[in-house]
Amino acid sequence: MSAPVLPAVRAAELIGSTPGDGPAYQGVADALRLLIADGRIAVGTRLPSERDLTAALGLSRTTVSSAYAVLRERGYLTSRRGSGSVASLPAGVVRRDTGLHLSASVPEGSIDLTCAALRAPAGMTQAAEAAIAASPDYLCGSGYLLNGVPELRAVVAARYTERGLPTTADEVIITTGAVVGTAIAARALLSAGDTVIMETPTYPNIFPTLKQLRARIAAVPVEPTGWDIPTMTSTIRASGAKAAFLLPDFHNPTGNLMSDGERATVAKALARGRITAVVDETVAEMGLDHDGPMPLPFGAHHEDTISIGSASKSHWGGLRIGWIRASRPRLEELSAARVPLDIGAPVIDQLVLLHLMRENPGMTPERRRDLIASRDALVDALSTRLPELTFVTPRGGLCLWLELPEAVAAHVTLAAEEEGLLFASGPRFAAAGGLERWIRLPYVLPPTDMVEAVERLAAAWAKVADGRAPRLRTRGTPSHGPLVA
Fold it and tell me: Does the keyword Cell cycle apply (predicted)?
């Protein structure tokens, strides 16, 4: 695969005017460093030749040569025979072209699709600089802000109001991510032996908390095409549950979007049973080609709703910032349950997110275009290379939920690992067992990587179909570690 090329004219546009004070070469080097670190110039991109960039910038050859030398010295530029000067990251930083590695045990060259999350967006470096500039206002205190930075709470509240659920800042608390937020809600609501409604498949990182609380699960199925609402409401009526854990917005892993009518029906059943809804909205901002307005947040239909949000998908998981939106009486219970788990999210990270959300409260148009391109590349490659695997193309979210012709998900997962492809099998998402005929493929890498992932999956599937699949190690336990996102 040849390296993408950044034209000199485009490079000059991205660099812009160099600062008036200080050496010009340092201004060019700093601009390019920020562009590479920020992802606006992707790692592996071939930069213009010194001669071409000199002409495009209208600077001297010495200036551009010196700037490139600084970048090479700092690890942001690598010279490759036949490829010129290629954008890179300093040693120790995960390279985008080797996959999204979450563990040091992932072999070099593997494509890791165990994590449904994106790289940091453009503007992250500037947001971090803005956060540092704003931090003196908070340095005189202890740094423990149990409910969060007030300005960020106000921005999150405003986003809920914009989406159709009027919210004030004192109905929001900031957490260290959605998993912690959901665990806080579970601990506030449940006692040992209580029943909870859960979708299956579902995002699995709530399972350990429910196990610790010895909660009993009443599972409701989510089909590739959506929720079976009659079955769901009858299960709710018969369950005697204290809480229902739901993902109505681009459900992970199926990508389904619950309509307003369906939300109203489910909300009515929950209200009759006096059941609190704990709604994971982590992927609510990840609409791709959904026609028309988004449904109202679930809390607009059901007053007793605890909404869990996060910046991990819409902005960046590395910030580890999430939030809980609930009525003020509920927030008092949640704050009391919070302290053993989470005594306050990092202030600097909150200030970074504050800057990003003021620029774009959800997903930027550029990231949406990139995500659509990756999804479509995955869909096209699967349709061509593996037509026997079926799926419904989601209108949003980050994942494709693939159905296999046979219940061999664990075998396919291990065979794919031998081919250098990591992903999660269906049983990882099962609230009540099963799902051996399903696998999840996030489309979070560039289109070329998604196509290569399908090639590796095809090789793995051929092994399984021919009876050459590797033997299972420990049933249901993949060798590549925990499912992070």
Answer: no
